[in-house]
UniProtKB/TrEMBL annotation:
Biased composition, class Low complexity, residue ranges: 217-226
Pfam families per UniProt: Peptidase_M14
PANTHER family per the UniProt record, alphabetical: CYTOSOLIC CARBOXYPEPTIDASE, CYTOSOLIC CARBOXYPEPTIDASE 1
GO BP term, example: proteolysis
Active site positions, chain numbering: 180 (proton donor/acceptor)
InterPro entries in UniProt: Cytosolic_carboxypeptidase (IPR050821), Peptidase_M14 (IPR000834)
Naturally occurring in which organism (per UniProt): Alexandrium catenella
Region annotated Disordered, chain positions: 186-226
GO molecular function: metallocarboxypeptidase activity; zinc ion binding
Domain Peptidase M14 residue range list: 1-212
Biased segments, Basic and acidic residues type: 188-203
Name of the protein in its database record: Peptidase M14 domain-containing protein
């Protein structure tokens, strides 16, 4: 079965490149764990979805002036070529070999730690409600930097055209995730002693144009996340 990983669809989120660099370094290493992953899965990794935007110094858009992570429903081959091509690759991989996971790597400018967004609004008796939450739970158990409480499962307004939502809803893959890595740091800043020592500061609400706002203000960020 196949695993598809994409990164840097938003040119300014350079921390996504650090993650994919580490992923590739690990997958190509001689470690026993990496060998198991290579033996059991076919890996499709796109390290930079928006190279034109990176070269031009854009923060979110490509040369066409559009946010490529809002074009997944009907991508133009001429204007949104990387999205058009990756969507076809995902469809083909799912049809031919089976697709077990799609991961889209991003950077977050406000919340701390590493966390995920997924499409997990299933009824409590639906097995998909359990399976979609398994990967973030495992990350939270294995990585002190990963903040499971910061993960979100609903699809907010304006997210319907993103990669993870289209792959989940249109292509029928439950295990599709946006992985966010903070620009700000691992742990949330602490309040001063006069305000209650040890109390963590709530993360500010995301702006309406932020890719990581899930239709609601961010909840208090929890340092450590593990």
């Amino acid at each position: 079965r196949s695993v598809v990983v994409s990164s840097r669809v938003h040119p300014g989120e350079s921390n996504a490149s650090w993650i994919v660099h580490g992923l590739l370094g690990f997958l190509l290493s001689p470690s026993p764990e990496a060998k198991v992953l290579r033996d059991h899965f076919i890996w499709h990794v796109v390290p930079m979805m928006n190279p034109d935007g990176v070269v031009c110094g854009n923060y979110r858009c490509g040369l066409c002036g559009a946010d490529l992570n809002r074009q997944w429903r009907r991508p133009s081959e001429a204007l949104h070529g990387s999205v058009h091509g990756l969507k076809r690759l995902i469809s083909r991989a799912k049809r031919k070999r089976g697709l077990c996971m799609y991961i889209d790597l991003h950077g977050h400018s406000r919340k701390c730690g590493i966390f995920s967004y997924a499409c997990g609004q299933y009824p409590k008796d639906d097995y998909r409600r359990f399976t979609v939450r398994m990967y973030p739970k495992l990350l939270g158990a294995l990585m002190p930097e990963f903040s499971a409480p910061s993960c979100r499962w609903r699809v907010g307004k304006g997210k319907r055209g993103t990669g993870r939502v289209v792959v989940a809803k249109d292509l029928g893959l439950t295990e599709t995730y946006t992985i966010e890595a903070s620009f700000f740091g691992h742990q949330a800043p602490r309040e001063s002693a006069g305000d209650g020592e040890g109390k963590e500061r709530a993360a500010p609400a995301e702006g309406a144009d932020s890719d990581t706002r899930e239709g609601q203000a961010a909840r208090p960020a929890r340092g450590g996340g593990g």
